[in-house]
Amino acid sequence: MTPAARLSGAIDLLCAIQNAPRRPADATANAFFRERRYIGGGDRRAISTIVWDVLRGWRRLQWNLRDISGDISPRLICAASLLLGGETMENVRRLFSGERYAQNPLTSREDVALKGLEGKELSTQKQPLAVRLEYPDWLDSALRETFGNRLPDEMEAMLGTPTLDLRVNLLKGSREQAARELRRESLPAEMTKLSPWGLRLDGRQPVTATQAFKDGLVEIQDEGSQLVVAAADARGEHRVLDYCAGAGGKTLALAMTMENRGHIVACDVHEKRLDGAVKRLRRAGVHNVERHLLVSGDKWAKRRAGSFDRVLVDAPCSGTGTWRRNPDARLRLTPEDIQELVIKQAQILDRAASLVKPGGRMIYATCSLLACENGQQIDAFLKRRDDFRRLPKEQMSELLPAELRSKAQFSLTPLRDGTDGFFACVLERIVTEAKTQEEDVAVTAPVAEDPST
């Protein structure tokens, strides 16, 4: 495709994203490219780069176009992104030539609006902090509660392009072997600093086309997500429940740490997500996993109360920690979403807790930056359940790097750790004679997840 055709494709994709405001942009993009299989891999990556650059700079682009009367169209904002990224007005006009596969020529209104941006920068100190750092105004106090004086630096890091992290499947081979195989396919990978199983690539790479991926030697998984699994410290003699398993990313990693022994139950309220795990489990060579769909009125959990050594709760959350990867999520998130999620997380914690056996552990994790979804959620849970406590630090998993073993809960950020934003806390169910399984609150109805997380 020519540069003009790629720009035209990016504008069409951005239109599709705007027409589905509550749907994640990556899901819209996947559907967009499935319907246009004639677009090759290199062109898909080029189109996606244009669109994701626009989404990452959305508030700053709108601010720079604030004096323009009328709606700001996908055409206009894509052109503005090019100009503020260093492109010249002459080249932008050339991309809107109206020739085959190119967009129609710029209108006089568009031309005047864009000409004023030539030579300017996307970010300026004149912009309000929330605009310059691309976060919603209404989240300012919550983010300051988390980061304090570090807020500008932390949010600046959130504007960067994320790396592509892989988890090596030790059931199939070593990290060194995986790195060698990727190098043979011109994908040089570095070993991650925190995860003992991670490899890191720069930017968007065609990993799923590699033999290492097809053979199940590597899986795409952020380093932070890998560390959540490390915190679970699941072993081959354990019964493990992945309570919000989704498509099974953490389930696969748990099976690896258990060396394909023991028993894992992967639960979710979405059948399609669980079905999506089947192919991944087969490719990874995992055979110690049972899938279970949680439905209203299900007696499955009641019958298994207090029976699991490890229960992983990867809770539905705001996804604020993944803004580098999913910049559109900043635009979709509302205060009402946070309120609903906090209630839902508390319900899930209470229900999952009844499945942990005395002496067992529950690992609560989110990809959120917000205290109300993280530490405050744990504090509230411990006030409700005096039979749980944060795991003593000396019992934390040795799979974690030393700096994360100093306490039972930890957070990760792009600035400090080079990962997505994550929170994890390991809780232990206290063994007491007074408590019995019959005293547990039975789980009779699942909590529906937010499909946008």
Automatic annotation (TrEMBL):
Catalytic residues (UniProt): C367 (nucleophile)
Record-linked PROSITE patterns: NOL1_NOP2_SUN, SAM_MT_RSMB_NOP
Pfam families: Methyltr_RsmB-F, RsmF-B_ferredox
Biological processes, Gene Ontology terms: methylation
Matches recorded under Gene3D superfamilies: Sun protein, domain 3, Vaccinia Virus protein VP39
Binding annotation for S-adenosyl-L-methionine: D268, D314
SAM-dependent MTase RsmB/NOP-type domain ranges (all copies): 154-430
Swiss-Prot/TrEMBL keywords: Methyltransferase, RNA-binding, S-adenosyl-L-methionine, Transferase
GO molecular function, one term: methyltransferase activity
Transmembrane segments: none
PANTHER family per record: NOP2 YEAST -RELATED NOL1/NOP2/FMU SUN DOMAIN-CONTAINING, RIBOSOMAL RNA SMALL SUBUNIT METHYLTRANSFERASE B-RELATED
Family: Belongs to the class I-like SAM-binding methyltransferase superfamily. RsmB/NOP family.
Protein's UniProt name: RsmB/NOP family class I SAM-dependent RNA methyltransferase
Organism per entry: Gluconobacter cadivus
